[in-house]
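Posting for a labmate who doesn't have an account.
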Amino acid sequence: MAPSAATNPEELLRRARDGAARDLGRLFELYRQYLRLLARVQIDARLQGKVDPSDLVQETFADAHRDFEQFRGSTEGEFVMWLRTIMANKTAEVVRRYSRKKRDVHLERELEGELERSSRAMGAALVAPGTSPSANLARRERAVALADALARLPADCREAIILHHLEGKTMEQVARTMGRSLDSVRGLWSRAIVKLRHALRDHSHET
């Protein structure tokens, strides 16, 4: 099924460039779950939960809205990269706020690199072993599709996948973090992977 005009990112990008504020808002919404997931990983790694990922996403969107006329790309991949750069700058601001350090361009570049690596890791985790994405899903940014699919899962299933695949924790570490037994977490993870496959399949049918 071909994406509708309301969900086709490059069509929304074209319309937003023509001055359609509503379509710019719709375009941003396509990446809310993706950016929130990236923010979650960065906040856990650097700020120990001192900041709500949703607040960081909102600040990223606010800057993206303000500076949208400066964006020169035309593809979803270019737009996603632009949003990641803005989020890296916002994250650096927050890190400096809590560490009380002056602006450091090296920190911003480091964060850009970390966000890019996290995004690649998300894309690699998109397809469980033995499966392959549909043609529609392959056309979208894989990391974005994964974030949307993860958002559909029950909270405990989503947490198990994020901790193990995106934060790189061992099953033992996941068990400690979630306050569960190792056997319980292994069973939860297995069920989560099955649910993720279904969520990805449903997502591909909608795009």
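Reply:
Got it, the structure tokens are right above this. The longest helix spans residues 182-206.
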